[in-house]
Design brief:
2% strand, mainly alpha, disordered N terminus, globular, single chain, two-stranded antiparallel ribbon, 569 residues
């Protein structure tokens, strides 16, 4: 690994180094655009070289990826799946979800090394699908960064208030009552969310070089806590708790439902790509960081789930506080105290736990998540889509103005907006970004026939629509129990159409020969990216109608604003 050199500026490789596309094959529109990126951007890169510096090592990148991915999901979702969906086979659900996440993860690994600059999916879309789709990608990434950071900050604030309410009156004083008047004033305002959001922004304003130390520290602390809980649970595991592996009341369908729920526990690894402009040796370290992040996160989830279901019969696992309740169930009080802050007792006797893991992990997730947004704004400002202020840096190369603007937005939203009805909006935006990245890999690895230059994009567009339609039809059939012969036939036909479209993309669109130069290549193109697209769109189809309406309106507003800005220019 090259040494960490803070003075090393951002550099884009030459076209031969950045991508090994053969010059002997015909180029369609997407490939021509890709080469324009290489040639045109090299001329202007000298203007950027004094602004962003490459100082993030492989370890730093993995810490960002793991920190952004492992949040409260492992503390809550694992117990929920074990108790209500999959029982002892919960680890199979996490494994399936991890494999599904890897389909898109490997696409990010290739594109992160191929386009080693800030912006993630926005950059990949702009160079393969055009500026309009890139703007949609940028809007979806904003949901992931600003929206998710706001939601996590709000969740942390709610948990702090919940914890303080559990202590109210226990000390015989009115101090907590007065504190709760300030921390929970009503009207949907959450001062604790304001405080954690503001603290994260202030820390990042000191520079990513300083904040990465905090990132590395808290990631290590969080992983250590998870390893402690998982290891202790495994020591307490009993073989009889794992039998039957697949409970009859859940069956295989329960494992699939669990995999669907646990997939969202893998979201966050893609943030590594948004800080690619500050990575050391990105062509090598970006793919390694993404793959290592997925390996670490999947291993943590599988180990934790095996430990939990082995320690406690799945019928007795708490849906909200699996590990603390599990340790108490086995009489290991000291482990329960480490895994929980306090016992909450309210009439009628109801015992719950405010978990240390969540209280430690969530503020850090806010920090890591909002870190990526200024880099996205930087990329969009360099392309004149956002005002130039978002590309301005201080003397140390920090994106101060972009961070202040996005930080203020995030803090205000976290403070005053309840997120009960926005989770599906954020989730759908992230899945759309995944889908765009998957499609971009196909567009740089394959070409349309010379006599039909738009065939590849057309087939991909039809594939996307058909995949989404099949998701809705399968949901109606399998989840809602619709018995209409028409619905069943349509679902089967749509699945067959997906297979046919995949075959046409693989056989009718020629593969571009790839040469060496150490660039990581996604295997099994186009089938692996097409599988990622199918899974992402299926998950979108499972969201609530209100979330689907909101994401449709959000994208419509984004496109309308983009077209208006182009018209006035």
């Amino acid at each position: 690994m090259p040494p960490n050199n803070d003075s090393q500026p951002v550099q884009i490789c030459s076209s031969d180094e950045l991508t090994p596309l053969s010059h002997q094959h015909a180029r369609n529109d997407s490939t021509n655009t890709f080469h324009e990126f290489i040639n045109v951007r090299n001329e202007s890169e000298s203007l950027r070289s004094v602004e962003l510096h490459r100082h993030l090592t492989l370890f730093d990148l993995v810490c960002v990826g793991v920190g952004a991915t492992v949040g409260s999901g492992i503390y809550v979702i694992t117990g929920l799946i074990a108790h209500s969906m999959a029982g002892p086979s919960t680890f199979i659900s996490w494994t399936l979800a991890g494999c599904a996440a890897c389909l898109s993860g490997l696409c990010y690994a290739e594109q992160g090394g191929r386009f080693p600059s800030a912006g993630s999916t926005y950059v990949y879309a702009k160079e393969t699908l055009g500026e309009a789709v890139a703007v949609i990608a940028g809007a979806c990434l904003t949901l992931e960064y600003v929206g998710s950071a706001s939601a996590v900050a709000r969740s942390w604030g709610d948990k702090v208030v919940e914890y303080l309410r559990s202590l109210e009156g226990q000390d015989g004083s009115d101090g907590l009552s007065y504190a709760l008047i300030i921390l929970d004033p009503g009207f949907g305002i959450n001062p604790c969310a304001f405080m954690v959001s503001a603290a994260a922004v202030l820390l990042l304003l000191n520079g990513v070089k300083e904040s990465k130390c905090i990132t590395n520290l808290f990631t290590t602390l969080n992983v250590t806590l998870l390893l402690f809980m998982s290891g202790t649970a495994l020591l307490l595991a009993k073989a009889e708790n794992l039998s039957p592996l697949i409970p009859p009341q859940f069956g295989v369908s329960g494992i699939v439902r669990g995999a669907t729920s646990s997939f969202f526990g893998y979201i966050g690894f893609d943030e590594i790509c948004c800080i690619a402009g500050e990575a050391v040796d990105p062509a090598k370290n970006m793919p390694r960081a993404i793959i290592l992040t997925l390996v670490v996160v999947t291993s943590l989830y599988i180990t934790a789930s095996i430990g939990l279901v082995g320690m406690v019969p799945f019928e007795e696992i708490s849906e909200t506080s699996g590990f603390p309740n599990g340790f108490r169930y086995r009489g290991v009080e000291w482990a329960a105290q480490v895994a929980a802050v306090s016992t909450v007792v309210t009439p009628p006797l109801h015992i719950g736990y405010i978990q240390i893991g969540e209280l430690v992990a969530l503020p850090f997730v806010v920090l890591v998540t909002i870190m990526a947004q200024p880099r996205l704004q930087y990329a969009m400002a360099k392309d004149n889509i956002l005002p130039g202020i978002f590309a301005q840096t201080d003397d140390m190369g920090n994106l101060i103005h972009g961070l202040k603007i996005s930080g203020v937005c995030m803090t205000l939203v976290a403070t005053v907006v309840p997120f009960a009805h926005l989770n599906d909006l954020i989730s759908s935006g992230i899945l759309i970004a995944f889908t765009i990245t998957d499609a971009s890999v196909i567009l740089v690895r394959q070409n349309s026939p010379s006599d039909r230059p738009n065939l590849l994009k057309s087939l991909l567009g039809i594939y996307v629509v058909t995949s989404l339609l099949s998701g809705f039809l399968l949901r109606s059939w399998l989840s809602f129990g619709v018995t209409s012969v028409v619905v069943r036939a349509a679902a089967i036909l749509s699945c067959l159409a997906i297979l046919a479209l995949g075959y046409l993309i693989a056989t009718r669109c020629e593969h571009v020969k790839q040469t060496g130069n150490g660039l990581f290549l996604t295997p099994f193109v186009p089938f692996l990216p097409l599988g990622g697209i199918l899974i992402n769109l299926y998950l979108i189809s499972q969201l609530e109608p209100s979330g689907l309406l909101m994401i449709s309106g959000y994208i419509g507003l984004t496109i309308g604003s983009y077209w208006y800005s182009k018209a006035v220019k």
